[in-house]
Design brief:
The longest helix has 38 residues. This protein has 339 residues and is of the alpha+beta class. Helices cover 48% and strands 10% of the residues. The chain binds fe (ii) ion (FE2).
């Protein structure tokens, strides 16, 4: 029993270290993005080089034969900053690109394109961007021009054509209901289709008004069950395959009748994520993280809407107002006797 307990503590330490090192990398990434955003207008070519360098680094964490773990970032670390949307889309798109076995160069193009996909929004007044009521027709027309503005801006950077296509087409949908040009299926560049899926997913989870945000589970179900015709189905199924039906950030009930929040998922075993468990006996800061990969007898029985959790459970799990993801290699776990 003592042996088992020690193994458990070791494991918990390992998990915390992995989360901590991922947070450090995320903070560095956030700084890089801040600097790229700042330089974009005054020194566009430099900003582009900086973006390529940053994505090059990030793609190293995706090297072949390594399992990828997607972590939910702490609100304290992530803050509220809007440009994390680009980083989220980059992380998700690069993960999908790798899982779809795209060449490394295409995976990097996805990353760079994702960083700049919404750059045209800088030409749209905040009054429209931050409006939480439905847009008027005129406002919507203005907003829907942002991919076109974006292409104009990145022209000064001298990006590749594929990056420009991502910016131009990230709101085009397979059934022709997208914008600005209502392109259909084969007219949309393959990389832009990947960005469209990741962008839609992240927009559902991170609304301007957090109250309107969907849970990750709801976002995936909506896209899969009602909007499938809008997306490249290979890409959409890949997203579900990698994140699982309970992506990081999902509040869940387990078969042992505990509740928790999914804090990370190994993209090759999406149904067995790590879950931070609510336990009133354990202080919140030391909360137990259950790695379901190591617990074959426990399964997730369902997703729970955070709003339906009792107050004390909600405060303990602190479901994020914004979902911010970052990815890392799976730590090489030290072989330990399983208790
Ligand atoms: Fe956009």
């Amino acid at each position: 029993v003592v042996e088992a307990k020690r193994a458990r503590i070791e494991k918990l330490k390992e998990q915390r270290n992995a989360m901590g090192s991922c947070e450090q990398k995320f903070i560095k990434a956030a700084q890089a993005i801040k600097s790229i955003t700042k330089n974009m207008y005054a020194r566009p070519k430099e900003a582009y080089a900086e973006a390529n360098g940053f994505i090059e680094q990030l793609s190293k964490s995706l090297l072949v034969d390594q399992e990828i773990v997607v972590h939910l970032m702490n609100d304290k670390v992530a803050g509220e900053e809007v440009y994390f949307h680009s980083l989220n889309v980059a992380v998700l798109a690069m993960m999908l690109g790798r899982e779809m076995k795209l060449p490394a160069e295409k995976v990097r193009t996805l990353g760079v394109g994702a960083l700049f996909h919404d750059i045209g929004k800088s030409q749209v007044p905040d009054k429209i961007l931050l409006k939480t009521d439905p847009l008027t027709a005129a406002e919507r027309d203005f907003f829907q021009q942002h991919p076109i503005y974006g292409v104009d801006i990145i022209k000064n950077m001298g990006t590749t054509i594929e990056v420009a296509q991502i910016v131009a087409q990230h709101h085009e949908l397979m059934d022709g209901t997208g914008y600005p040009h209502h392109l259909k299926g084969p007219q949309i560049a393959p990389l832009a289709r990947i960005i469209a899926v990741c962008n839609t997913y992240d927009n559902y989870c991170n609304r301007a008004n957090p109250v309107q945000s969907l849970t990750p589970y709801e976002a995936l179900s909506l896209m899969f069950s009602q909007q499938r015709a809008q997306f490249d189905n290979d890409v959409l199924s890949q997203l579900i395959r990698c994140l699982g039906v309970y992506p990081p950030g999902s509040c869940v009930r387990l078969s042992n009748d505990t509740v928790g929040i999914v804090v990370s998922v190994n993209s090759s075993k999406p149904l067995r994520p790590s879950v931070l468990i609510y336990d009133p006996e354990i202080p919140k800061d030391e909360a137990m993280i259950l790695d379901l990969e190591q617990e074959p007898d426990i399964i997730i029985s369902k997703s729970v809407r955070p709003g339906l959790l009792p107050r004390e459970v909600y405060d303990y799990l602190s479901p994020r107002k914004r979902m911010t993801y970052y990815m890392d290699q799976k730590p090489q776990s030290t072989p330990s006797k399983k208790g």
